[in-house]
Amino acid sequence: MFKRKIALSLGAALLFISAVGCQMKSNNTTQTESSDNSSTTTVNMNQQESDFDLQFTGNDLDIGYDKENSTIITLNGTSAQIDGNGATVEDNKITITSAGTYIVSGSLDNGQLIVNAGELDKIKIVLEGANIHCDNNAPISIKQADKVFITLAEGTQNTVSDGSSYELSEDESTVDAAIFSKADVTFNGSGSLAVNANYGHGIVSKDDLVITGGTYNITSNGQGLTGKDRVKIKDGTFVLNTKEDAVKSNQTDDTTKGYIYVENGTFTINSSEDGFDAETGLIIVNGTYEITTGGGSENAEVKVDTQMGGEHFQGKGEEMGTPPDMNGEMGTPPDVNGEMETPPDMNEPMSMGEQSNESESVSEDISVTETTSQKGLKAGTLQIIKGGTFKLDTVDDGVHCNGNLTIEGGDISIATGDDGIHAEGNVIINDGTVDISKSYEGVEGYTIVVNGGTVNVVASDDGFNATDGTSTDGIRGMQDPNNEESNSNLYIKVTGGTITITASGDGIDSNGDFIVEGGDIVIYGPENGGNGAIDYAGSGTISGGSVLAIGYSQMAQGFSDSSTQYSFLWNLDSIVNSGQEATIKNSSGDIIYSWTSEKSYNSIVFSCSDLVGGEVYTIEAGDIISNLTLESVVTSNGGMGMQGGKQPGGMRGEGQEGPSKEGQQESSEQTKDN
Known about the structure:
Layout: E1 5-7, E2 24-25, E3 30-31, E4 39-43, H1 58-61, E5 71-77, E6 80-83, E7 87-90, E8 93-96, E9 100-108, E10 112-116, E11 122-134, E12 140-144, E13 147-152, E14 157-162, E15 177-181, E16 184-189, E17 192-197, E18 201-205, E19 208-211, E20 215-220, E21 225-227, E22 230-233, E23 237-242, E24 247-249, E25 259-262, E26 266-271, E27 276-278, E28 281-284, E29 288-293, E30 366-370, E31 377-379, E32 382-385, E33 389-394, E34 399-401, E35 404-407, E36 411-416, E37 421-423, E38 426-429, E39 433-438, E40 443-445, E41 447-450, E42 454-459, E43 464-466, E44 471-472, E45 475-476, E46 491-494, E47 498-503, E48 508-510, E49 513-516, E50 520-524, E51 534-536, E52 540-542, E53 546-551, E54 567-576, E55 581-585, E56 591-596, E57 601-607, E58 616-621, E59 624-629, E60 634-636, E61 668-671
Parallel strand pairs: 1-56, 5-9, 8-10, 9-11, 10-12, 11-13, 11-14, 12-15, 13-16, 14-17, 15-18, 16-19, 17-20, 18-21, 19-22, 20-23, 21-24, 22-25, 23-26, 24-27, 25-28, 26-29, 27-31, 28-32, 29-33, 31-34, 32-35, 33-36, 34-37, 35-38, 36-39, 37-40, 38-41, 39-42, 40-43, 41-46, 42-47, 43-48, 46-49, 47-50, ...
Antiparallel strand pairs: 2-3, 4-30, 5-6, 7-8, 44-45, 53-57, 54-57, 55-56, 55-58, 58-59, 59-61
């Protein structure tokens, strides 16, 4: 017997003002208008994890050094003493010119540590309590080498700082960081490094930036950690306070570069822009991440959904319908064009095109235009989260990818002023816990597939939204029913996991199909008649799992009669107020489902494997008792369900023998005796 007890506490829902422009998009390409501060990039939608080098070399991990056979550099304020070969000092500049190990300690008040060695030379610099400051240039500048390894000696504290302006020669024109390298650079060890970057970025490598250990405290007027070709982090502790992106890789010429890979580490990030920003892939295996962007979600620009029935009933000059009366009187449906619209003829099914396989849903490059962003985790072509603990408080999307995004594990908490999880490609959740406590839209993608894990969403607009961005009349998500191609590959599919959605817009909004094969889904829909707990443009089928979706009847939509598991859409005669316990009982009086919602409703969509055709079921919600008989795989007394269910105004879907108003001895609504 399927039984579940549910109670949900809701925070105050935010009301948002939409700043999203009209987008033109097909299933293969995306094109958006650019503005003065935006840029358009082409995204490789076929990017794979195997495209990237995720290995660490032995030298990356080697923190040992032989002091007796190393060159010792002792800083003494205005110059340095050098004991050994391979380095020179002139005025306040120490220059390393050949391969070897160099141990640096002491303080340099206004000077530089420079590496200018051969193209094949490998240099190891051990910071053993070094404090290097330069007023007008990069305190550590790596001009040429094969690769440089900077080891933070155990138990030592090291500091690098610069001034607010640089005086650069012509061949130094690209220098823009306190630690700047034109060669591959690796940081390792167990000591600590503080970087105070007053001019620009903290640490920049124009090739690879690799970190395998150490503690880093970086404050910068630009980015924190930047590796143009790639950033690879195996471990470490990071406190990053930045005016631009905290961790960035920005190579655009090679799709196998421009990525960020993190195996572990502890990150505390406070960034004015993105937390992690990878031009191509962002792959995170483990670690702890506390990321705040733009001062947090409380600083986000407020958005309003201008679709009909949003919390504000006025938008773009339309005459909007009367909202529901919470004391029991139902409102009128919204009027989009100034007059009441005729309901669609459900005997004429909408042709939405054929659903494609998941692997075919977005197969070619797309173009994406972005303005300055303040996202938590951001990737250009591919993002994979395999584990870790995340606390994201962001002005912009919490987790964002212009390509495909997969969550395979981890504990992810998100509060955002925009989307919790957003992908221009496919969103796939296989495992882990995703808790989106505050968002505009909870999860948005071209397709959304949940195979496992736990997903909790609170959204001021849609909970889950499968969209290609196509809109008409400037209203995001309002699809053109004559445009079959725009919906042909879109879908939301659930095969497993536990999903709880609390939405002020649509709970589930698929501009294609809605497919349920397993899992446990609970949807607390909007407290208005202009949106529904479930909204799909193609077909809605259920063959396994359970679904409870509650909302208001005007836009209520149940499952299609092509489903193989029984379901019902049932509208009640009056509104169930928040906080009232509700149950569904079988003909034997056994409770097969129960819930308590802190949102009011008068419409219920329900399905689970315990439902049996021909049986009588009783809904008890507050003072309401309603009996219904499952006369077919989809039973309904009203709503907007495609291809099934009794429609508003007495219309029935084709082939549906739902309960009629005549002789409702078994299918009836009554009020409990007080």
